Predict the structure.
Amino acid sequence: MPQLPAPDFPADVRARLETDAKEIIARYPGSRSALLPLLHLVQSEEGYVSRTGMAFCADQLGLTTAEVTAVATFYTMYRRKPSGDYQVGVCTNTLCAVMGGDAIFDELKQHLGVGNDETTEDGKVTLEHIECNAACDFAPVVMVNWEFFDNQTPDSAKQLVDDLREGRPVAPTRGAPLCTYKETARILAGFPDERPGAVEATGGAGPASLIGLRLARGESTQRVVSPRGGDDAAAPKDAPQPGSQHLSSHDAPQDTSASDPAHPAGPAAEEGE
């Protein structure tokens, strides 16, 4: 049987969305380029991208619903079913996983009584495992509506979701203040972020990442920051000097004890030695 047409938004909602859509489309020389922010716009209305939302985007841009659906189903940032006010994502990529991300995810599933991509009965929290968010310095990382909660443990993560469900104030480790998923979607659509303190908020990489940046700039670096958050260790004597041919200490085998005194080891022996 042919699929029935998607239901339309109520007249007042559609009129409001059309006004916003015209503002978004006007930013681009070609209207099709506005599809991604328009999908965020309809997601800010319903909390996910519904058939109604995709039909609205297609109508505004002169596209087929198939063209819109192909984009909406490709990107994981668009939800395809109703979800919670707070998207709690646990990074389970390599570094976060070995630092405790897998344990956090498993304990949150049991604590909340949901599986991956499922929402609690009160509609507050949707739990999902996510891929790397370029915050490896702060592993393991949990994100709530794309805001960072760094250096988490199973206990701190459980306290976090409990606070979210009970409506208690929650502050990200860095970055902008926390807001609901719908509010986040509207900001991603390109509308002003009116949260107090959002404009002044900054994220920033951790010290371990910034060492590489400083070397690339030719700046002097006298210390190597422990990736485990412990005391600094003296830079290795044979570390490359600023401006030398090799700016990375990973270019050749070398002792690791300078950067990790608790686990000294020499270069890997060649096979057959």
Remarks:
- The chain has three domains: 1-82+180-196, 86-179, 205-237.
